[in-house]
Amino acid sequence: MKKIFLVINIFCVITLSAQEIKFYGEAIPGGLMIGVGEKIISAKLNETNLQVSKSGVFVFGFDRNANGKFILRVQFKKKKIKTFEYNLEKREYEKQSLSLEKKYVTTPKKLSARIKREAQMMKTARAKVGKVKDALFMNGFVYPVDSINITGVFGSQRILNGKPGNIHNGTDFNAEEGDSVYAITDGIVRIAGKDFFYNGNFILLD
């Protein structure tokens, strides 16, 4: 596999002076930001407390429809606080029309028990996400497939058989049957699902 690094060992080559923070990512609706610093003891975005790793890494994001002012407060040892302000403007998302079998749009009653059971399995697995205290992604990220063909983006409006569906909450890559699929970074597998009604075969990586 030829690895394409989206973040190339950024955490391994940075030398920071005290109370300096490096940021990676985009401060836009639907965007993700990574902060890296030394001697950080806490971080807070508006009223939300952020988890900070022992090595001074923290992550925060903005909701799809986020707009207006956001205040990031980072506290260092010796009680020094640095404040960062982000002003977000409304973002326009693309619409994606899909033609699906009716059963994937309107759930058949005979499958409701299976779907409910799988949803509970996902809920149980997701409850464990975010409790890892170390930033396991510090070696960077790779694309999940060798051939890069993105077919769906986060935040887009799905039109299913002509009717508006849920907002898409992921990024889709096209692949052929039998292609290898890779974890995009280091992490913990919380669930490995096989033949789920909506998710198919998948892993949930924390």
Topology:
Layout: E1 21-25, E2 32-37, E3 40-45, E4 48-50, E5 57-61, E6 68-76, E7 81-88, E8 95-98, H1 112-126, E9 150-152, E10 157-160, E11 163-167, E12 172-173, E13 189-196, E14 200-205
Parallel strand pairs: 8-10
Antiparallel strand pairs: 1-2, 2-5, 3-4, 3-6, 6-7, 9-12, 10-11, 13-14
Oligomer: single chain
Derived structural class: mainly beta
Any idea what the radius of gyration is? 20 Å
Could you give the count of β-strands? Answer: 14
**Cα-to-Cα separation, first versus last residue:** 22 Å
What portion of residues belong to β-strands? Answer: 35-45%
Average the pLDDT over all residues and give the rounded result: 84
Unreliable sequence segments: 1-16
Helix content: under 10%
Largest sheet: 4 strands, antiparallel
Shape: globular
What is the tally of helical segments?
1
Walk me through the structure.
The protein is 7% helix and 36% strand. The chain contains one helix and 14 strands. A four-stranded antiparallel beta sheet has the order 4-3-6-7, with no helix packed on it. It has a three-stranded antiparallel beta sheet with strand order 1-2-5, with no helix packed on it. It has a three-stranded mixed beta sheet with strand order 8-10-11, with no helix packed on it. It starts with 20 loop residues before the first strand and ends with a strand.
Keywords for this entry:
206 residues; mainly beta; four-stranded antiparallel β-sheet; 14 strands; 7% helix; 36% strand; disordered N terminus
